[in-house]
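Sharing in case it's useful to others searching the archive later.

Someone asked me privately for the predicted structure of Karyopherin Kap95, so I'm posting the question and my answer publicly. Question first, with the sequence:
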Amino acid sequence: MQLYYDKMGFYMEKALYGLTAMGMNHEEEKISLQAIEFWSTVCDEEIELQLEEEDANESGRPFDRTNFQFAKTALPQVLPTLLFLLTKQDEDADEDEWNVSMAAATCLSLLAQTIGNDIVAPVIPFVEQNIRSPDWHCREAAVMSFGSILEGPDPNVLTPLVSQALPVLIEMVKDQVLQVKDSAAWTLGRVCDVLIDCIQLDVHLHNLISALVAGLEDNPRIVANCCWAIMNLTEQLGGNDAVTYPLSQYFEGIISTLMRSTETNVNENNSRTSAYETMATLASTGTKDTFPTIAKLGLAILDRLDTTIANASQVVGTDDRVALSEL
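And my answer, the predicted structure tokens:
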């Protein structure tokens, strides 16, 4: 598919739609992963074709390739299987290990970028049916499927759905199950990144910030995603020469919590690195009324740097030296 997309039409119609749909449901994980990868590759190729065609049209060049829209044609077969596979999370799995539910989420995201608005109507009923499920697998799959379709469809189509879902997603950052919290924080980060206009500042912002700041003192996985969401928020809402911005009233509290979370010697999931990066982003995008806090932050970081350098002479083990030099 990657090398010979232009030649695949005949084979897709005759065999590959059915074979790959069957392969995705295979009980052997390796086979299922390859079948999902096949459709991710289809999406990659069709996204690339769309970009090439737009580029050709803008520069007035002829475009002589055909986009067969395999992904759109296969949607009724492929999508239900992907949504089902999202519920196949293994709570004991190593999060760095590629598995079927991760592959399904990636494929769903690529599918949304490929076919745009057509993905929304069939995914939303799945979200609605499962987001309050007592089974955490279903809750997490609902959140992950929602987060995965936020890039691709027209923002005007997504805005009312996201506005409606935001209170539920914010609440789910406090779920009892780590995987659900993780996906909820990631989805909020996606909203802050690509659909910032869906966040009604007078309605959603306070609860959103409260949930993200609470997440900064949670499991390292949650910390990393909450940091990413805060970075997206401050980049979208700040970053100019204004006197104030919507995060000003929360600025000092966010910085204080980030400073506490970076006092640990643990950098699991790059959580500590993410926290420092978030402070740097807040400092570079904050408005004039945040400057006193940024000045205090500068002094505090210099104090930490002095201590870290002083400790360097006392470090014996190689691992400790590597960790300290990274810090």
